[in-house]
Protein backbone atom coordinates (compact mmCIF):
# COMPACT_ATOMS: atom_id res chain seq x y z
CA UNK A 1 0.00 0.00 0.00
CA UNK A 2 1.24 3.51 -0.80
CA UNK A 3 1.07 6.06 2.00
CA UNK A 4 0.82 9.75 1.19
CA UNK A 5 2.47 12.34 3.37
CA UNK A 6 0.43 14.99 5.17
CA UNK A 7 0.65 18.61 4.05
CA UNK A 8 3.08 20.89 5.86
CA UNK A 9 3.41 24.00 3.71
CA UNK A 10 6.96 23.21 2.56
CA UNK A 11 6.07 23.47 -1.15
CA UNK A 12 7.20 19.91 -1.89
CA UNK A 13 4.76 17.72 -3.79
CA UNK A 14 5.04 14.09 -4.86
CA UNK A 15 2.79 13.64 -7.90
CA UNK A 16 3.85 10.17 -8.99
CA UNK A 17 6.23 7.30 -8.52
CA UNK A 18 8.94 5.92 -10.72
CA UNK A 19 7.64 2.93 -12.68
CA UNK A 20 11.09 1.38 -12.94
CA UNK A 21 11.45 1.15 -9.15
CA UNK A 22 7.80 0.05 -8.79
CA UNK A 23 8.41 -2.89 -11.11
CA UNK A 24 10.94 -4.15 -8.59
CA UNK A 25 8.71 -3.55 -5.58
CA UNK A 26 10.10 -0.21 -4.40
CA UNK A 27 8.06 2.97 -4.03
CA UNK A 28 10.16 5.89 -5.16
CA UNK A 29 8.30 9.22 -5.29
CA UNK A 30 9.25 11.88 -7.80
CA UNK A 31 9.54 15.16 -5.90
CA UNK A 32 9.00 18.72 -7.07
CA UNK A 33 9.61 21.92 -5.15
CA UNK A 34 6.67 24.09 -6.18
CA UNK A 35 8.02 27.21 -4.48
CA UNK A 36 11.27 27.29 -6.41
CA UNK A 37 10.25 28.18 -9.93
CA UNK A 38 7.23 28.41 -12.20
CA UNK A 39 6.47 24.98 -13.70
CA UNK A 40 4.81 24.64 -17.08
CA UNK A 41 3.10 21.23 -17.39
CA UNK A 42 1.71 19.68 -20.52
CA UNK A 43 -0.33 16.56 -19.75
CA UNK A 44 -1.10 14.51 -22.80
CA UNK A 45 -2.60 11.13 -23.70
CA UNK A 46 -5.77 9.68 -25.22
CA UNK A 47 -9.20 10.10 -23.64
CA UNK A 48 -9.37 8.00 -20.46
CA UNK A 49 -5.59 7.80 -20.00
CA UNK A 50 -5.69 9.58 -16.62
CA UNK A 51 -4.83 13.21 -17.46
CA UNK A 52 -7.57 14.78 -15.34
CA UNK A 53 -6.88 12.42 -12.46
CA UNK A 54 -3.18 13.35 -12.55
CA UNK A 55 -4.04 17.04 -12.80
CA UNK A 56 -6.34 16.82 -9.78
CA UNK A 57 -3.56 15.10 -7.85
CA UNK A 58 -0.99 17.76 -8.77
CA UNK A 59 -3.36 20.64 -8.05
CA UNK A 60 -4.68 19.31 -4.74
CA UNK A 61 -1.11 18.68 -3.58
CA UNK A 62 -0.13 22.23 -4.49
CA UNK A 63 -3.25 23.44 -2.66
CA UNK A 64 -2.14 21.56 0.42
CA UNK A 65 1.62 22.16 0.39
CA UNK A 66 1.95 25.67 -1.01
CA UNK A 67 0.59 28.16 1.54
CA UNK A 68 -1.81 30.79 0.15
CA UNK A 69 -1.73 29.23 -3.34
CA UNK A 70 -4.65 30.27 -5.54
CA UNK A 71 -5.79 27.92 -8.28
CA UNK A 72 -7.83 28.69 -11.40
CA UNK A 73 -9.59 25.70 -12.97
CA UNK A 74 -10.95 26.09 -16.51
CA UNK A 75 -13.18 23.14 -17.31
CA UNK A 76 -14.66 23.67 -20.74
CA UNK A 77 -16.10 20.15 -20.96
CA UNK A 78 -17.82 20.51 -17.57
CA UNK A 79 -17.58 16.84 -16.63
CA UNK A 80 -15.01 16.17 -13.93
CA UNK A 81 -15.01 19.19 -11.62
CA UNK A 82 -18.64 19.47 -10.50
CA UNK A 83 -17.42 19.53 -6.87
CA UNK A 84 -15.91 22.97 -7.55
CA UNK A 85 -19.30 24.43 -8.46
CA UNK A 86 -19.68 27.88 -6.91
CA UNK A 87 -15.95 28.24 -6.03
CA UNK A 88 -14.43 31.63 -6.91
CA UNK A 89 -11.83 30.51 -9.45
CA UNK A 90 -13.74 27.69 -11.11
CA UNK A 91 -14.86 28.45 -14.67
CA UNK A 92 -16.85 25.91 -16.64
CA UNK A 93 -17.91 25.67 -20.25
CA UNK A 94 -18.27 29.07 -21.98
CA UNK A 95 -17.11 30.95 -18.88
CA UNK A 96 -13.63 29.39 -19.36
CA UNK A 97 -12.67 32.41 -21.47
CA UNK A 98 -13.64 34.81 -18.63
CA UNK A 99 -11.49 32.80 -16.24
CA UNK A 100 -8.55 32.86 -18.62
CA UNK A 101 -8.77 36.63 -19.12
CA UNK A 102 -9.06 37.24 -15.38
CA UNK A 103 -5.93 35.15 -14.82
CA UNK A 104 -4.14 36.87 -17.70
CA UNK A 105 -4.81 40.32 -16.20
CA UNK A 106 -3.27 39.28 -12.90
CA UNK A 107 -0.24 38.00 -14.82
CA UNK A 108 0.19 41.29 -16.71
CA UNK A 109 -0.03 43.22 -13.43
CA UNK A 110 2.63 40.98 -11.91
CA UNK A 111 4.80 41.45 -14.99
CA UNK A 112 4.89 45.20 -14.55
CA UNK A 113 5.78 45.09 -10.84
CA UNK A 114 8.63 43.59 -8.91
CA UNK A 115 7.15 42.04 -5.83
CA UNK A 116 6.58 38.68 -4.18
CA UNK A 117 3.12 37.29 -4.68
CA UNK A 118 1.18 34.22 -3.55
CA UNK A 119 1.63 31.30 -5.92
CA UNK A 120 -0.96 31.36 -8.66
CA UNK A 121 -1.84 28.31 -10.76
CA UNK A 122 -3.74 28.08 -14.03
CA UNK A 123 -5.15 24.69 -15.00
CA UNK A 124 -6.88 24.25 -18.35
CA UNK A 125 -8.57 20.89 -18.82
CA UNK A 126 -8.83 19.76 -22.46
CA UNK A 127 -7.30 22.96 -23.78
CA UNK A 128 -8.19 22.27 -27.48
CA UNK A 129 -11.90 21.76 -26.75
CA UNK A 130 -12.07 25.23 -25.24
CA UNK A 131 -9.91 26.96 -27.82
CA UNK A 132 -11.49 25.36 -30.88
CA UNK A 133 -14.99 26.25 -29.65
CA UNK A 134 -14.21 29.92 -30.31
CA UNK A 135 -14.23 31.98 -33.53
CA UNK A 136 -10.82 31.98 -35.19
CA UNK A 137 -10.05 35.64 -34.46
CA UNK A 138 -10.59 35.06 -30.74
CA UNK A 139 -8.58 31.83 -30.91
CA UNK A 140 -5.61 33.76 -32.28
CA UNK A 141 -5.84 36.42 -29.57
CA UNK A 142 -6.06 33.84 -26.80
CA UNK A 143 -3.22 31.79 -28.25
CA UNK A 144 -0.94 34.80 -28.31
CA UNK A 145 -1.85 35.57 -24.69
CA UNK A 146 -1.18 31.94 -23.85
CA UNK A 147 2.23 32.14 -25.54
CA UNK A 148 3.10 35.27 -23.54
CA UNK A 149 1.98 33.58 -20.32
CA UNK A 150 4.05 30.49 -21.03
CA UNK A 151 7.12 32.54 -21.93
CA UNK A 152 7.08 35.18 -19.22
CA UNK A 153 5.31 33.87 -16.13
CA UNK A 154 8.05 31.65 -14.77
CA UNK A 155 9.62 34.17 -12.38
CA UNK A 156 6.26 35.60 -11.30
CA UNK A 157 5.17 32.80 -8.94
CA UNK A 158 2.94 31.30 -11.61
CA UNK A 159 2.50 27.63 -12.54
CA UNK A 160 0.66 26.65 -15.71
CA UNK A 161 -0.83 23.21 -16.33
CA UNK A 162 -2.57 22.24 -19.55
CA UNK A 163 -4.20 18.94 -20.43
CA UNK A 164 -4.58 18.06 -24.05
CA UNK A 165 -5.25 14.82 -25.92
CA UNK A 166 -3.28 15.86 -28.98
CA UNK A 167 -0.95 18.80 -28.40
CA UNK A 168 -0.73 19.97 -32.02
CA UNK A 169 1.80 22.75 -32.61
CA UNK A 170 -0.98 24.84 -34.20
CA UNK A 171 -2.65 25.18 -30.79
CA UNK A 172 0.36 27.04 -29.38
CA UNK A 173 1.39 30.15 -31.29
CA UNK A 174 4.99 31.26 -31.89
CA UNK A 175 6.41 27.86 -31.01
CA UNK A 176 5.25 28.28 -27.41
CA UNK A 177 4.62 24.54 -27.03
CA UNK A 178 8.35 24.35 -26.43
CA UNK A 179 7.95 26.49 -23.31
CA UNK A 180 6.50 23.58 -21.36
CA UNK A 181 9.13 22.46 -18.87
CA UNK A 182 7.38 19.24 -17.81
CA UNK A 183 5.78 17.06 -20.46
CA UNK A 184 3.82 13.96 -19.52
CA UNK A 185 2.48 11.35 -21.95
CA UNK A 186 0.07 8.84 -20.45
CA UNK A 187 -1.08 5.39 -21.59
CA UNK A 188 -0.93 4.53 -25.25
CA UNK A 189 0.24 7.59 -27.10
CA UNK A 190 0.02 7.48 -30.86
CA UNK A 191 3.32 7.66 -32.77
CA UNK A 192 2.15 11.08 -33.88
CA UNK A 193 1.84 12.39 -30.30
CA UNK A 194 5.16 10.86 -29.27
CA UNK A 195 6.86 12.56 -32.21
CA UNK A 196 5.23 15.88 -31.22
CA UNK A 197 6.33 15.83 -27.58
CA UNK A 198 9.23 13.45 -27.08
CA UNK A 199 10.89 12.96 -30.48
CA UNK A 200 14.24 12.02 -28.94
CA UNK A 201 12.65 9.02 -27.25
CA UNK A 202 10.28 7.78 -29.93
CA UNK A 203 12.05 4.43 -30.18
CA UNK A 204 11.83 3.55 -26.49
CA UNK A 205 8.31 4.72 -25.62
CA UNK A 206 5.83 1.83 -25.29
CA UNK A 207 2.10 1.52 -24.72
CA UNK A 208 1.21 1.74 -21.00
CA UNK A 209 -1.87 1.12 -18.85
CA UNK A 210 -4.11 3.98 -17.62
CA UNK A 211 -2.22 6.26 -15.20
CA UNK A 212 1.21 5.09 -16.41
CA UNK A 213 3.39 6.90 -18.93
CA UNK A 214 6.45 9.02 -19.46
CA UNK A 215 7.75 12.37 -18.33
CA UNK A 216 10.50 14.59 -19.64
CA UNK A 217 11.90 17.67 -17.90
CA UNK A 218 13.19 20.28 -20.33
CA UNK A 219 13.06 17.60 -23.04
CA UNK A 220 15.65 15.41 -21.33
CA UNK A 221 15.75 12.72 -18.65
CA UNK A 222 12.92 10.49 -19.79
CA UNK A 223 11.31 8.90 -16.71
CA UNK A 224 8.64 6.24 -16.75
CA UNK A 225 6.03 7.23 -14.17
CA UNK A 226 2.96 5.77 -12.47
CA UNK A 227 0.18 7.87 -10.98
CA UNK A 228 -1.12 6.12 -7.85
CA UNK A 229 -4.90 6.39 -7.80
CA UNK A 230 -5.84 8.82 -5.01
CA UNK A 231 -6.69 6.96 -1.78
CA UNK A 232 -8.94 9.63 -0.40
CA UNK A 233 -10.84 11.31 -3.20
CA UNK A 234 -12.96 13.43 -0.85
CA UNK A 235 -9.86 14.90 0.82
CA UNK A 236 -8.33 15.60 -2.60
CA UNK A 237 -11.50 17.41 -3.70
CA UNK A 238 -11.61 19.36 -0.44
CA UNK A 239 -7.97 20.50 -0.72
CA UNK A 240 -8.43 21.61 -4.31
CA UNK A 241 -11.68 23.40 -3.58
CA UNK A 242 -9.96 25.34 -0.78
CA UNK A 243 -7.36 26.75 -3.15
CA UNK A 244 -9.91 27.44 -5.89
CA UNK A 245 -12.02 29.38 -3.44
CA UNK A 246 -9.27 30.91 -1.27
N1 LIG B 1 -3.72 6.65 -11.93
C1 LIG B 1 -4.78 5.91 -12.14
N2 LIG B 1 -4.86 4.65 -11.67
C2 LIG B 1 -5.96 3.91 -11.89
N3 LIG B 1 -7.05 4.33 -12.59
C3 LIG B 1 -7.03 5.56 -13.09
C4 LIG B 1 -5.91 6.41 -12.91
N4 LIG B 1 -6.16 7.59 -13.52
C5 LIG B 1 -7.37 7.48 -14.06
N5 LIG B 1 -7.91 6.26 -13.80
C6 LIG B 1 -9.23 5.78 -14.25
O1 LIG B 1 -9.42 6.11 -15.62
C7 LIG B 1 -10.59 6.92 -15.80
C8 LIG B 1 -10.26 8.07 -16.75
O2 LIG B 1 -9.36 8.96 -16.11
P1 LIG B 1 -9.32 10.50 -16.45
O3 LIG B 1 -8.37 11.10 -15.50
O4 LIG B 1 -10.69 11.06 -16.50
O5 LIG B 1 -8.69 10.46 -17.93
P2 LIG B 1 -8.59 11.59 -19.05
O6 LIG B 1 -8.69 12.91 -18.34
O7 LIG B 1 -7.27 11.37 -19.71
O8 LIG B 1 -9.72 11.35 -20.00
C9 LIG B 1 -10.98 7.41 -14.42
O9 LIG B 1 -12.36 7.42 -14.25
C10 LIG B 1 -10.33 6.46 -13.47
O10 LIG B 1 -11.24 5.48 -13.04
MG1 LIG C 1 -10.02 14.48 -18.72
Automatic annotation (TrEMBL):
<feature type="domain" description="AAA+ ATPase">
    <location>
        <begin position="37"/>
        <end position="190"/>
    </location>
</feature>
<dbReference type="GO" id="GO:0016887">
    <property type="term" value="F:ATP hydrolysis activity"/>
</dbReference>
<dbReference type="GO" id="GO:0005524">
    <property type="term" value="F:ATP binding"/>
</dbReference>
<dbReference type="InterPro" id="IPR003593">
    <property type="entry name" value="AAA+_ATPase"/>
</dbReference>
<dbReference type="Pfam" id="PF00004">
    <property type="entry name" value="AAA"/>
</dbReference>
<protein>
    <submittedName>
        <fullName>AAA ATPase</fullName>
    </submittedName>
</protein>
<dbReference type="InterPro" id="IPR003959">
    <property type="entry name" value="ATPase_AAA_core"/>
</dbReference>
<dbReference type="InterPro" id="IPR027417">
    <property type="entry name" value="P-loop_NTPase"/>
</dbReference>
Amino acid sequence: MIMTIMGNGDGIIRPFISENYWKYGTTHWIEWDMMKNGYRFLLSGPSGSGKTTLAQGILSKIARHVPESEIYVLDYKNIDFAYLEGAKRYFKHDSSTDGFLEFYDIFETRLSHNATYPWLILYIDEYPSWLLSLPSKEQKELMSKMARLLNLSRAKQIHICVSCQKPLADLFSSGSRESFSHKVLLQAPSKETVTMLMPNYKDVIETCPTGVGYMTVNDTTLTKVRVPFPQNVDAMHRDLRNAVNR
